[in-house]
Amino acid sequence: MKKFLLFIILAPLLAHSATFPSKESARSSEHCKSEWTKRGQLDQRMYDYCMKREGEGYAEALILMEKYKNQPWIQDVINFSIKEWTKAGVRQDSMVKFSMAKIIDGWEDMVYESKQPGFNKAKHQSCQSKWGVQFNMVAYCYKQ
Are 100 and 57 in contact, with CB atoms under 8 Å apart? Predict the structure, then answer.
């Protein structure tokens, strides 16, 4: 009975619920205008391409978030990637998605490595301590 009560109390804390900011909060229009305006003249074709790319990045980031929603580290990956690719309040969702994908790929690499004979747990822990949620760097560190 005590274990059941403990589970009831702790269950909400154990549930993983990743969140991603709204698409509008990225302020993609500001980024794309800044990127594709030269001497006061906006290159409309490139601006449109940039906006499309940012929209796709946002959608793909949400797909990654959904795919890995049960991983306890996914919110940290999202937060890290957003922080890396937000400047002056303007977020580049195409690069946030790229960063997330790169980090997740590193995690997948380490899952694979951990199942191989001769996996060096101490080396992995050392790399993990150094790089934290940057699993791509953990994988790179481990392979060195």
Answer: no
- For the record, the structure tokens of 28 come out as 């993609």
> And the tokens for 32?
């794309």
Query: One-letter amino acid identity for 5?
Result: L
> Cα–Cα distance between 130 and 13 in angstroms, integer?
27
Quick one: tokens of 62?
Answer: 């949400």
Would you state the torsion angle of the CA atoms of residues 54, 58, 63, 65, taken in this order, to the nearest 10 degrees?
130
**What is the spatial distance between Cα 83 and Cα 56, in angstroms, rounded to a whole number?**
19
What are the two backbone dihedrals, phi and then psi, of residue 19, each rounded to the nearest 5 degrees? Answer: -130, 155
Give the pLDDT means over successive 10-residue stretches in the chain (144 positions): 39 64 95 96 98 98 97 98 97 98 98 96 97 97 96
User: Within a 10 A sphere around the Cβ of 66, how many other Cβ atoms?
Assistant: 11
Cite the beta strand spans of the chain per DSSP E. Answer: 37-38, 41-42, 86-87, 90-91
pTM equals: 0.85
CA 17 – CA 63 distance, rounded (Å): 14
- Residue 106 to residue 62: CA distance in whole angstroms: 19
